[in-house]
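Section handout 9: paired folding examples.
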Amino acid sequence: MDIVIKQLGRVDYEPTYAAMQAFTDQRCQQPAQNLPDELWICEHPPVFTQGLAGKPEHIFLPGDIPVVQTNRGGQVTYHGPGQVVGYPLIDLKRAGYFVKEYVYRIEEAVIRTLLHFGVTGHRVGGAPGIYVRLDDPFGHAPLPQRPQKKVPGSEALEPDFTGLGKIAALGIKVSRNCTYHGVALNVAMDLQPYLRINPCGYNGLRTIDLSTIGVSVPWNEAADVLSHKLASYLAP
């Protein structure tokens, strides 16, 4: 069963969050095969969203931007105009893969989207999301801080963001095998609000967008590419 892609345009965050919860509750009350998976693509007016583990001290200057508490994983992030937000509403049991692979597939879709525009996206060990080299966003050399196989008995290393900018953030929720929340790709934004928070709970983590690294892409084009990559990589 194909994923149904819905282009929502610019929509307020809180009603969209409520609609995702309602959709997920509905599909949990019906046989899963009756409701196809959906992918909602949108952008939001300025808003800070706080995850379940979010600490208030990571939002130190909200100003006139509202802060919304959510039930997704992770810490604080920012949504605003010029950012493509994708909300995959997937039945993982029907899709046939688990949460760890689901996250990997979302990240891969973002990496392939960036590659479409000539940019090399990277994963960082211990820190979900996609990053680019600030000094060479188009180079293909692997990162030394990429995810590595853990040596048994060794402690997990703190993520290393040296020389990197975060261009896409993930925050997900899984309820009875069904996903909501999702991924945000920065295209051409006002990045100043990121200076009012510790993005994803990391002090000093730089956040960038495609326009910052010299890639001029219309929002609609980036949204179209990301939506099709997500639909492809999240298929069963």
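Moving on to protein 2 of 2.
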Amino acid sequence: MYDIVVGVDTDVDRALAQAEAIAELPGREEVRAILLHVVRGSADGAIEDVESVTEARTELAAADVEVTTETAEGDPAMCILDAAERHDANCICVAGRDRSPTGKAIFGSVTQDVVVGAKRPTLVCSASKQ
């Protein structure tokens, strides 16, 4: 099994971009996507109530990708990196944001922190605006 920790925020378009990228991987039938939604405050809400997680889970399940969901509380980058360690994940998947030409030189802070801190391959996806 090839485990991918997928850091999903509340943006549906970014979550779908991540799910679509994973669904297009060769051998996706052997992939397990661990959807991780991190909240900075109390993690009282159920992860099933987060629309972006629901949409990503639906997209991945339709592509025959095994999906599990988790929620964590704290710094998003640290929680994603911790989950990757805990699951001994083969890969981490995060989503970048559309930026101005200057902003493109620097990823969003969570994405940048994950890419810099990761000890494993990291897939950065971007939701395309139409």
